[in-house]
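Human: I hope this is not a bother. Would you mind checking the protein record under this note? Thank you for your patience.
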Amino acid sequence: MPSPSDLLDPQTLAQAEALGLLARQIVEGPTSGENRSPFHGFSVEFSEHRQYVPGDDLRHLDWKIVGKTDRLYVKRYQQETNYHCQLLLDASNSMRYGEFDTNKMSFARKLTACLAYMVLKQRDHVSLRLFDQNITATIPKTGNMGSMNGILRTLVTAEASGQTRIPLILHEIAAASARRGIIILVSDLFDDEDAILSGIRHLRFAGHEVIVFHTLHSDELQFPFKNPVRFDGLEEALQITIRPGDVRKSYLEEFDLFRRKVREGCERSNCHYVAIDTSKPMHESIGTYLAFRHDMTV
């Protein structure tokens, strides 16, 4: 079993810090697509000053104090607005596929850990839910970097098991979340695609930004098998022995259709879809998305 610190990939974190992975792009309007504007981290009424730290919005620097003291201070406002990022990690049995670092659950643990660290590093709030058919583990909303220890311990001990019910979880989160924020789903999405997309639409209608990290193994993407092979169902009691050459073409067509349907459904809901191949280094896999998200906010 890896140690908790092994979950934090240094290259991914360095890339994210440079680009600002989770810059705010939250929908404030009552329905998706209306009144898009970012939370800036400050409300309207001025309260006091605090010393500038790297990453603060330069628009809030108090230039009068800078001129008098040569020190950087920003104006602090009452009820500074921090967003809440809810991380949803699919811990169902299908996530057990793969060996070593390419194992989907292993990769997803690391990705989720890095995302949690990035949010807390920005002084925002994060919560974590692991699920299969139900929520199996929870880290409540926190803005304290010291909470990373508990997050990492929860992730490093998490095992994939049971069947999944992704749509149910998404609808539950949408119904229970009183305040708009960011919902990040890390999953292979092996469930009913139409029902998953319905859950995403519910989250978007509730005003949340949604990011889907579609986490897949290269075997699932390429179907490289050549010799007769037996496939065992991970979430259903099913076994089937096939000659890969007989089904490879139809499998790839169906799997591509599945991925395209999910991606296009996400796009129609203004939800970010990020394809993940666990055979690729994490910092490479999400690098394009980091750059894309950064470009959205500059």
User: Anything to note?
Assistant: Residues 46-77 form one domain. The longest strand covers residues 135-142. Residues 26-47 have pLDDT under 50 and may be disordered.
